[in-house]
Every structure is written in structure tokens, then in C-alpha cells.
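User: I'm putting together a teaching handout on how sequence relates to shape, and I'd like one worked example. Could you take NAD(+) kinase from Triticum aestivum, show the sequence you're using, and then write out its predicted structure as C-alpha cells right after it?

Assistant: Happy to. First the sequence, then the C-alpha cells directly below it.
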Amino acid sequence: MATDAALSQPDRATVTLGEPAHEEAVQQLVQQPDSRLRSLNPGPIPIPAAPSSRSLLEKVSDQTVNLDLTASHQSENGSISTVSSTVSSVESEKAAYEFLAQTPIKSTDKHLVEFSEAMRTVAKALRQVAEGKAAAQAEAAEWKRKYELETAQKQQTRIKDCGTCTDDNLGKMTSQLSLEAPASDQTGCCGNHGICSHEVLQDEVPGPNPRPSLSMVGRKASFRLSWGCNGNKNGQHKHDFVSFEKGDITTAERSSKQILLKWESRPQTVLFITKPNSNSVRVLCAEMVRWLKEHKNINVFVEPWVSKELLTDDSNNTVQTWDNDDDKKMLHKKVDLIVTLGGDGTVLWAASLFKGPVPPVVAFAMGSLGFMTPFPSEQYRDCLDNVLKGPFSITLRNRLQCHVIRDAAKDEIVTEEPILVLNEVTIDRGISSYLTYLECYCDSSFVTCVQGDGLIISTTSGSTAYSLAAGGSMVHPQVPGILFTPICPHSLSFRPLILPEYVTLRIQVPYNSRGHAWASFDGKDRKQLAPGDALICSISPWPVPTACLVDSTTDFLRSIHEGLHWNLRKTQTLDGPRD
């Protein structure tokens, strides 16, 4: 073929292009202002190997064929051959430059395609992250709704046949901002007085089929809770109000209020909770039981193991106890008052016996620190006299209600019984050597990811316990809030938080966590949390009312001064430099 002939005679084409006339024509072609030549990139141009060489070779070969044909018919006058050769070489150069000019554009298109594919991959990953976060927030909101619905259903089952108070009583209660429990002959209240007795300390609700009660126990005593001013017991009460006068919004001083408890019927039953393995506690318990029965005609309940000790020490001490869990669940309907002999741990144990309403707690200090035990055991007669007569100040200590949600049952109704804690719930790494990795949500909002030794979710009563040791603040027990305190976080900016009491916290172990987490509730009942499991925490509707020796604030300040020696320092001497 013509192409093969041209490729087989390279010397003839080379010789013809090497003449001086041909070189001048090429120089003129290079110097002319061609836009295609100016648009060439002076830098290195990537050229595909196989396809590009073949295409270039075909273009050059066609021009070489024309060159050879012109040369073969060359006449004596050599100018015709020269002109034909010049034109052929010029066209070959143009074809080569045109091909080279097209190659970078194709390469650039290829790079743009690769870049667009990478951007699409990144956008897809970001979209998946956003969808995962939205799904987690929606799931947290759904669990909150389920728990609120469950709590409302439980309260509705406990509150029955709510009666109607008279207008006179209602006006009197509203003016005093009192929280009144139903009298012994009432079945309920209208629920318009704020915190009523069925919300704090629930009396037994009579029904068509009453449950068999424990023996030798009469009707529960009724009482009234009211707001006092700075601990005063003179019956003068303040009102909460908001005033919109001349554009200024003012409120009453809520911090000056102290809750008072006044008995409306005489207490008849007292439950004793004692610290185990203490001879001094056992002796004092027997003495106090004897004094209450002989001088106050009070029925006494004790734990089963305490009942055996009292019968061993004194056969005349007749006390009551419970035989099974069903009887223990009914204690709040029979017990008017709880007396604890021990430290703060004894108060925690007493609160754990009540999954619902808790009777008032009178805590005698026979432990170590005693943040919640203000009464001296040496003066138990005077202290119990004042409490049984009333009125006396109390502190409503909030409890946390905790639910463990297993990953396998997250789409089902929670079957595990909720756990109530008075101090704190702790999520730590247990025996694992890896950092604890936890995702935290507040209602439907993402809070943070915890990477460290763990996390403490504490009540304000527990602010002087484990949370304090981990760097949390000390908070007055009547401040409504939830403490969010990390344990040794691997971060320089992770500071503790105090959240409002109405929020619901969700602590979840993510699927990419290296290890399991462990949750403990008031230092006991440890539960393992596997990847995918979650812990839901919210404020329980059943607080623990503890009696105050003076008032809530005085007792709190005394506890941190005497128990922790807070801000204890030698006083600066008078002599020295002066202004």
C-alpha cells in the first residue's frame, strides 16, 4: 500500500525535508501568528502512548506518500519538487500540532471526572453522617416520649377518684401556697395545690378490693407541706408571682422559701433502718424502739435481720417486719416516718426500699461524714419529740429514674424495672484498659462524646459525693438540676455541666466502641452496657423528704463545714503591714 511504501523509504523524505528552502518554509510557519500555536501549553503535555502514536503516525504517513509521489515524477526543473515537499511538510507539522493541542484537553477532562467522583463520595459520606445523627436524635426523642407516657400512665393508675375541695379550703390553701395531703377520711384531692400528698408521700387509696394489709397497723397519718420564709414557723407564707408593671418583670425571692411539714393526724408507725455490724447502733436501736413503744405508743417496723437481733437481745421488744417483696412494696402505705441510724449510706439504703413515694426521713448521725444526717444520736428524745409534734423543716431531695435499654430490645417496650438513685449513676470502663467511649444526648440535642474513664450523672444531693471527687460543683440539695460530670476526660476543655431538672439524658455506647461500659447506681447494682446499649436518666416524680435539724440551708452549710472543712484556713493576724 501507499502507507507501507512511505514508511519503507524514510531516507527520501528526510533528504527532501532537509533542503534549505524547506527549512525556511518551516521557520515562516512557526513565526506566523497562529492562534492554535499560541494556545499550546509550554509545559510538559501528557500524551497517551499507544493510541496517540498510531494516530500521529497515520497523519505523517499520508503526507509522506504525497511527498514520495511528487518526488517520483520530478522533472528537470527541480522547483516543482521543492514546492510540493514544502507544502507536504507544512501540513504534517500542522497535523502534529493539532493533535498535541487536543491531548491536554482530553487529559484535563479525565482529571475532572475523577475529581467529581471523589466529591460525590465525600458528599455521600457527609449525607450518611447527617442521616445517622438525625436518626439518633429522633430515637432519643421517641424514647423520651415513651417514658413520659409510661410515667403518666403510672401516675394515673395511682391517683383515683380525685375529689373536690371546698371553695373556702381552696382559697385558704391558695393564699398560703400550701401543699396539703388528704385527711384521714378523704380519698384524694383536686390536684390544684402544687405538690399534693399523692405526689410526694402517697397514702393508701381505698378501693372495692383492698389488699390485705400488714398486721397491727392503723391508717396512715396525714400532713401538710407549706412554704415558709427563711425557716420561720410562724405561719406567714410568701406567694410566687410575676409582676408586669411599667414593662418591668419581677419575681418573688424563691431562694428564701423553706418547706415545712405539719402533721394533721398523729403518726402511728415508724420504720427503723440501721447500719449493720455496729454494736453501738444495735444498742441505740433497741433503746429507741423501747422508748417509742412505751412513751409514744408507736408501732415499729424493722428489717427482718434487725427483728431477729432485737428478739435475741430483748424478748419483750415486739416489732413488725415483712416476709416477702410484696409486703415490702406496700410499706409506703403503712409507714408514717422513717428513722435511720448510720451515715449517708444508710439513708441511701432506706431510699432504695421505696420505688414510689417515700415517707419523711429522720436521719441520726452515726456514720463518717453525714451530709444527710443532721440529728445527733445523743439527743434522740428531744429530736423525735419535735418531729412527732411538728411542724418541722424538710428538704425534698430529687432522685434519678434510670432505664437500661438493650440494643436487642430497643424497638420493644422496656422490660427491665427502672432503678431509682438518690446520689448518682456512674458509667465507667470497669476492668477494661480502653477509654470509655460514650455518646450523650439531652432530650433530642446532641451533647458530646465522652472519651475518658467515665461519666457521672448526679443529683444535687449527690454533688458532695463522687461528683465532687471528679471535679464537680457543690450544689444546694434543693436546687433543681442534674449534674453532668466527666471522670478523667482525655481533653483539656471538658468541664462539668449543671442541666435543668426537666431534661432527659441518654447515654449510649456506640457500635464502634472498643470495649464495654459498666453502670452502677448509688454504688451498687452494676450492669454491663454493650455496644448499642443505652441508659436513660430523668428526674423521678418521687423525691426523698429528709427532716432538717434547723433548715435546709443551715444544715447544708454545716455539713460542708464540718464534713469537708470547706475553706478552712488560719485567720490573718492583725499585726503587719496596713494601708
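A couple of points you could highlight for students: DSSP finds 15 helices and 23 strands in the chain. The longest strand covers residues 445-459.
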